[in-house]
Each structure stands twice: as C-alpha cells, then as structure tokens.
Amino acid sequence: MLESHFTPERLFKEYTSIDIPQIPGLPKTFLENGTKLVLRNARKDEDYRLYEMLVEAAEKGEGFSVHEYPSIDSMRLEMFANSYTALVEEETTNLLIGFLIFHNAAMSRRGKGKVCDETVIVSTELRGKGFGSSLNSMARLVRTVLGYEIVLREAFHNNTRMLKLWKHDAVSVCGVLPRSAFQKGVGWVDLVLSVLELDKRHVTAAE
C-alpha cells in the first residue's frame, strides 16, 4: 500500500499558506422578513464554522452523507481553498444563518469560470423558516458578480426543500445517480443532478 504524503500536518500547512478566493463587492446587507442579514466573504479562520455545520447536517441526515467530509482538512482544501465561500449572518447578533459556496465545475469543458458548482447550506436549526429562499436569492447575485453562465447543482432525492427551490428557479433535472450516498437514519439515497443556464443578459463575462 502506498503511504499518503498528505498528512494532516502537511494539509494544514498548505491551507494556511494560501489566500482564499474573495467575492468582489461584499459585504452586502439584505432585509428579509424584518431581519437584517449580512452576506460577506468567509474568513479563513472561520473554516471550523462551516465544518461544524456540515457535520451537524450529516449527523441529522439532512442534505449531506456521513462520508462526504471525513475531516476538516479535506473540507478546507475542497471548499475554502478552491472555492468562493460566503457566509450569511444576522447583522446585530452575528447568528450564523448559512454558507454559499461556488467553484468552477470539474465537468466543464466550456472554459474556466463559466460553469459553476454551487452549494447552499442553511443551519439545521433554521431550516424550514424561509432562510433557504433568502440564501438562494443571494446566490443569484453572486453568480452574476462572478460571471458564471451555467450552474450545476445536486441534491438527495428526499431533500424536498432544496428540490422546491429548484422549481422556483426553473432548473432542469439532467440525471439521477442511484444509491450515491449513505444518509444517516435513511440509508442509501439517490442523487439528483440539475443544470441552470443563466440569462446571459445579466451575466458579466469572467475572463
């Protein structure tokens, strides 16, 4: 068996030595149902906040599998190091609402910065209270700023809240991966894949 050179110490050193991508034009403030929400770039030292949210969602069987992020190191390099990561919080209390994550899709052959893999994560304690719709609206703004033309999304077949948001955005379901993940309390679930082609009139080209 080959010994991995990517030890936790090396991964952390690599992570701390890089600058994470920044979304231009942030922070921005939004008024949602009488509550002021701030959308801002996540700081590198806030990686643990995202990891805790992912682990909690996986433990509750809500939108993530138990195998997706086995360590904070794997999440750091996949999300923070190679993605645009924005954090949403309540303005006065700094209550963490969720994260928006955007990175160039690995499957794209259209050119760098044109096709986006997008993830919208709401704190498990706040789900079902309309924040998913609020973050989805913010994601539309960020996509435009970053110049993406196509958005790829994925969700488990039983994630009814996310699939409902897809209908609102008029995304097209393009495939299903059977038994793609093991969800706690549920078992094996299918992954639904979708694509959303953005209105090019409202997209700034990213060079």
What is this entry, summarized?
The protein has helices spanning 8-16, 47-59, 72-80, 131-146, 160-169, and strands at 28-32, 35-41, 84-90, 96-104, 115-122, 150-156, 172-183, 187-197.
Describe this protein's structure.
With 207 residues, this protein is an alpha+beta fold. It has a single domain (8-197), classed as Aminopeptidase (3-Layer(aba) Sandwich). The protein has 5 helices and 8 strands; from the N terminus they run αββααβββαβαββ. The protein has helices spanning 8-16, 47-59, 72-80, 131-146, 160-169; strands spanning 28-32, 35-41, 84-90, 96-104, 115-122, 150-156, 172-183, 187-197. Strands 1-2-3-4-5-6-8-7 form an 8-stranded mixed beta sheet, with helices on both faces. Strand 7 (172-183) and strand 8 form a beta hairpin. Helix 1 (8-16) packs parallel to helix 3 (72-80). The radius of gyration is 17 Å and the shape is globular. The model is unreliable at 1-6 and 200-207 (pLDDT under 50).
